[in-house]
Amino acid sequence: MTEPLQILFWVVVFPGFLFTLILGLVASWIVRKVSALVQWRVGPPLLQPFYDVIKLMGKEILIPQEAQRTIFTMAPVVSVAGTLLLSMMLWRVSLAGTSFVGDIIVAIYLMVLPSLALILGGSASASPHATVGTSREMKLVMGYELPLLLALIVVIIKSGGQLSLVAIAQNAPVLSISGMLAFLASLMCVQAKLGFVPFDMAEAETELGSGILMEYSGALLAVWKVAQAMMLVALPLFLVTVFLGGFTSSLWAGIGKYVLVLVLIILIKNTNPRVQIHQAMKFFWVHCGIALVVAVILATIGNNYGIGWL
Amino acid sequence: MSWKIWSLKKSPWVFHVNVGACNNCDIEIVNCLTPKFDIERFGMKLVGSPRHADALLVTGVGTRQAVVRLREVYRQTSKPCVVFIIGACACGTGIFHNGYHVAGPVDKVIKEVDPNAIIAYVPGCPPKPEAIISGVVKALSAI
Ligand code: SF4
Question: Who among A40, A215, A216 is closest to B35 (CB)?
């Protein structure tokens, strides 16, 4: 099991980079296709995300004169690395059932890494559009981290204080009131993490150009696109593992749950307008916050008195 | 044909530059994105930054104020890229011919920056969305 070659195979090919990348690009095609169908369009062909990435690889890389070159070029790589680690961990939990105590906390940290890289890259690119996008992204991160942590506390209470993902994936907290509240809140957090409408104010195509990614071109932009595609695998998979009971019952049920979460995300994306940053903060801190505090109380009561549906 | 050009044809992302159009050509470009015409079928996407763009859709006559920006936008676009000149104004200054504010047809301005630029023309006042799409598809299959 610990042969170096096998580990390399895990990281580069099977549950790691290539597998997640291909799955992510297909998932981003599903996002675009379903959005097109919702708007009564035909939509792009299946291989479109692959063409996009190949094309970007062949384009010239322009780096702004005032940009901080090292951070500017390293930020997308950091983003890919964080997402890759997260998805590796989640695949090992889902497919092989191996994990370690406290890996849910590691997962929380790894999920912040892409947003952090986005903030670094945006602020290193010396562009006013990117700066506005960066400041919005920073506020957004502060907004959604609180409800996400509260939601995960609900999950940990429901599982009886377990801190490893395999133990948490044994039951599906979503089948109770507090778990349902936590699931809905963290679905919105994932929406914000993916930078999808209604929380796409950091990218804001219509007013900021492309916000944070404004100055990126060529292969660097391709790396960002790859990171975003991989997030599209990792984050729904995290929700499936934590809230919906993961892949424990069967592989097909797990895939079904993943597709369900993905379609929910796409439908939220397509039926909402973009909110302003202060509305998002209010939504996350006040509305989600109160709902989740109630959920934590309910979960504690349910756990102490053995009432499963609370 | 190199893989760069092949993949460029498969996913041309377009950036829209208005250098003094009467806004009618711009409306027709936006029209191409609507469900009726849906250029995303061909992998085309309207992007917000010239650095992401593979094709510049230039409309308008090229006023003296705007051509300075047009040159800059062309320099900022990551190469290889294609320039589509859309509308009678942009192709040959159209009804504004010899106007005091006209700094020349757009292709002349682009060629000042880069003599080897790939330029395609879609005439019409304004060109129909069908004409724009067929022009873009024809030009892409020609390179
Ligand atoms: S070509 Fe016609 S429609 Fe287009 S900008 Fe010129 S005058 Fe307006």
Answer: A40
Sheet with B118-122: list strands edge to edge: B45-46, B13-18, B55-59, B82-86, B118-122
Q: What is the pLDDT of residue A203?
A: 76
ipTM, two decimals, is 0.88
Omega prior to B105 cis, within 30 of 0: no
Helix, strand and coil content of chain B, in percent to the nearest 5, comes to 45, 15, 35
Angle at A36 between CA A186 and CA B127, to 5 degrees: 140
Interface check for A52 against chain B (CB to CB < 8 A): the answer is yes
Ligand 1 centroid distance, CA of B61 (Å): 8
What's the CA gap between A48 and A240, in Å, rounded? 27
What is the total count of domains within chain A?
A: 1
Q: Which residues in B have their CB inside 8 Å of a CB on A? A: 3-4, 7-8, 10-11, 13, 35, 38, 40-41, 43, 47-49, 51-52, 54, 76, 78-80
**pLDDT at site A11:** 80
Q: What's the pLDDT score for residue A182?
A: 92
- pLDDT digits 0-9 by tens, A25-70: 999 999 999 989 988 888 899 999 999 999 998 888 888 888 888 9
Residue A310: inside a domain:
no
Helix (H) or strand (E) run with residue B84 in it = strand B82-86
pLDDT at A161 over 90: no
> What structural domains does chain B harbor?
3-142 (3.40.50.12280)
Instruction: Dump pLDDT digits (tens) for B4-53.
Output: 888 888 888 999 999 988 899 999 998 888 888 888 888 888 888 888 89
> Cα(B140)–Cα(A92) distance, rounded to whole angstroms?
45
Residue nearest to atom 3 of ligand 1 (CA): B126
Q: Which of A29, A53, A59, A212 to mutate to test the interface with B (most CBs of B within 10 A)?
A: A59
Quick: pLDDT tens for A181-192.
999 999 999 999
Residue A228 structural domain: 3-305
Q: Nearest Cβ partner of B78 from A42, A52, A62?
A: A62
> Which of A60, A217, A221, A223 is most worth mutating to test chain B (most B CB atoms within 10 A of its CB)?
A217
Residue A226 lies in a domain: yes
Verify whether ligand 1 is closer than 6 Å to residue B88 (CB atom). Answer: yes
Specify the ligand 1 atom closest to the Cα of B21.
5
